[in-house]
Amino acid sequence: MPLYEHVYLARQDASAQQVEELTAQFTGIIEQMGGKVAKMEYWGIKSLSFRINKNRKAHFTLMNVDGPAAALTEIERQERISEDVLRYITIRVDELEEGPSAMMRKVDRDRERDERRDGGGGGGRFGGGGDRFGGGDRFDRGDRPPRRDRDEGRPRDDAATE
Fold first, then answer.
1. Which one of 41, 42, 124, 158 is least enclosed by Cβ atoms within 10 Å?
2. pTM of the full structure
3. Do the Cβ atoms of 22 and 84 come closer than 8 Å?
4. CA 48 to CA 45: how far, in whole Å?
5. pLDDT value at position 115?
């Protein structure tokens, strides 16, 4: 049977459970028509390059399918009917990719890079570990000098005087 990679984008408003139900529905259609889903990956909510039907983000799901063309035609018909599906694409491939897809490898690579940068703290983008955002201590610069407007007893320039 022919091999396909099928990716569809679901609305951001849909919950992860609704997206799983959609995927289960599509998988059921494929299996009814004599095919099988070799691999299924939920890539999560990602930002879109441009708005699609007033949506800026979408749930991304990949399905590697080993099945007849009629099964994919039926899935695409169901996706056109569904209001939750924004876009879809099906590509026929010579062989299915083993292991995680390029998107999942990228997520793992980014996570490892962040852990190395933060020293394993896993604080994320602006959370702990870095001394630029939220390091807290100013050992390298010393204390600030006293403010002239407070210490000399005169009002600040921008304060309203009567």
1. 158
2. 0.64
3. yes
4. 9
5. 80
Q: Where are the domains of the chain?
A: 3-105
In order, the DSSP letters of 81-134 are H-SSEEEEEEEEESSPPPSS-HHHHHHHHHHHHHHHHTTT----SSSTT-SSSS
Q: Which residue has the tokens 């006293």?
A: 146
- Long-range CB contacts (within 8 A, 24+) of 101-104: 101/41, 101/62, 103/41, 103/43, 103/60, 103/62, 104/41, 104/43
Domain 3-105 has CATH 3.30.390.10: no
Going by pLDDT thresholds of 50, 70 and 90, the confidence category of residue 120 is low
- The count of C-alpha atoms lying within 13 angstroms of the C-alpha of 106, restricted to the half-sphere facing its C-beta, is 5
